[in-house]
Amino acid sequence: MFDQAEHLRKQFSKTEKETKTIAVVSGKGGVGKSNTALNFSIELSKRGKKVLLFDLDVGMGNIDILLGKDSKYSIVHLFNDYRPIHDMIELGPKGLSYISGGTSLDDLLNLDESKLNYFFEQYEWLAGKYDYILFDLGASASYSIIAFSLAADECFVIATPEPTSITDAYSMIKHIVKKQHDKQISILMNRCNSAKEGRQTLHKFIEVIDRFLNKKVHPLGMLPFDRTVTTAVMRQTPYVLLDEKAPVSLAMAEIVTNYLNQTDEINDIKRDSFVQKLKRLLTVR
Known about the structure:
This protein is of the alpha/beta class. It has helices at residues 4-12, 33-46, 63-67, 75-81, 85-88, 113-126, 143-151, 163-179, 195-213, 227-235, 239-242, 247-261, 274-283, and strands at 20-26, 51-56, 89-91, 97-99, 132-137, 154-159, 184-192, 218-224. The chain contains 13 helices and eight strands.
């Protein structure tokens, strides 16, 4: 019988490494943020990377639903019951680890000091045990979401070509840049009707950000509108696993390949740790 706890102990007994943290956000809901974060994470795992997907989409956590799994614990149990964070970790496909978000957690900023300190303490246990930790954050510009985005090494903003999505994504980026102008931000354009539309919308959006916010952001890539995504959600199977040859799966594979091949100049120099930065942001306003 598979012993998940024993598997995790063996996995974490190895030499610790430097973990890269990525905040995944969107300006509005319904743009496929969580699904994109999940499939991106699985593609990283398929390349041999140790990945933890941390569902912090407060009140709307759905990573376990997208995976078709029942999680014994969620992040709610860490805050409400003071359970250790390793109890929260579930094993998904291709070696992916994830923590379920639950549906009854208030905004992190409303947590009392003891709960925040417990989270900081428990997060330190994760440090160095993964190559990547991705935070799937909510679709609003609340202070805690901005704080996580600022504390992470980089930020992925998910948008669609729809004008309302572009407007809200711009607003989210504006909030982040106002607080930290040198934050590394990448844009992924989802549900593009054609490659031409995706390229034009993505490049125009990047130009607008450069012009009005004086900020250089990076094009992470484009994902096509593909009915495979709907089928995958209905079957509770990530699309990169349901059909590797589907247009959206091929596009995601290309995005991850390009991402891993790119030179990350900003993060070559490590500053404070994620938890050090987050602690300052959440406890000092």
